[in-house]
């Protein structure tokens, strides 16, 4: 492990500050130190924030029709009967596409997210709120069942 000579480091810092003081005569130590600390914090937080990778896909951007298509594509092994009733699935999809039916609020969703997921456009949150006897400022709870009205 390399030893750090604090006297050399202190000397370099003092030389740097002396050069700044020479270039900017009105500069004060406390302002210089504060500026360096703020700059260091910005660098640390920026690196920390932007280095986060491999985030999972945001499922709230998927529409019900995309989720239903994924569910219908599930394979059934030989000898097993499909437990999906195609008439129910088709009817449900037709209702969702027509903008009617019900949906369950998922974790972390608000009216905007539900409208975006179900209606395809978050701007329809006001119609969703009105259909459920709510205001646009009403909070929704996870698991709450909402009537879907997109038109």
Task: Provide an overview of this structure.
The protein starts with 5 loop residues before the first helix and ends with a strand. Helix content is 52%, strand content 4%. The longest helix has 22 residues, at 29-50. The chain has two domains: 7-48; 87-151, Roll (Membrane-bound Lytic Murein Transglycosylase D, Chain A). With 151 residues, it is mainly alpha-helical. The chain has helices at residues 6-23, 29-50, 64-72, 86-98, 111-119, 125-131; strands at residues 102-104, 145-147. It is built from six helices and two strands. It is elongated and about 75 Å long. The protein has a two-stranded antiparallel ribbon with strand order 1-2. Helix 5 (111-119) crosses helix 6. It comes from candidate division WWE3 bacterium. This is LysM peptidoglycan-binding domain-containing protein. Residues 104-148 form the LysM domain. Keywords: Membrane, Transmembrane, Transmembrane helix. The chain crosses the membrane at residues 31-50.
The CATH class of the largest domain? Alpha Beta
Structural class label: mainly alpha
Helix content: 40-55%
Strand order of the largest sheet: 1-2
Number of helices: 6
Mean pLDDT: 74
User: Any idea what the radius of gyration is?
Assistant: 29 Å
Protein name: LysM peptidoglycan-binding domain-containing protein
Domain LysM: 104-148
InterPro entries: LysM (IPR018392), LysM_dom_sf (IPR036779)
Transmembrane segments: 31-50
Task: Give the SSE map.
Blueprint: H1 6-23, H2 29-50, H3 64-72, H4 86-98, E1 102-104, H5 111-119, H6 125-131, E2 145-147
Antiparallel strand pairs: 1-2
Helix pairs in contact: 5-6
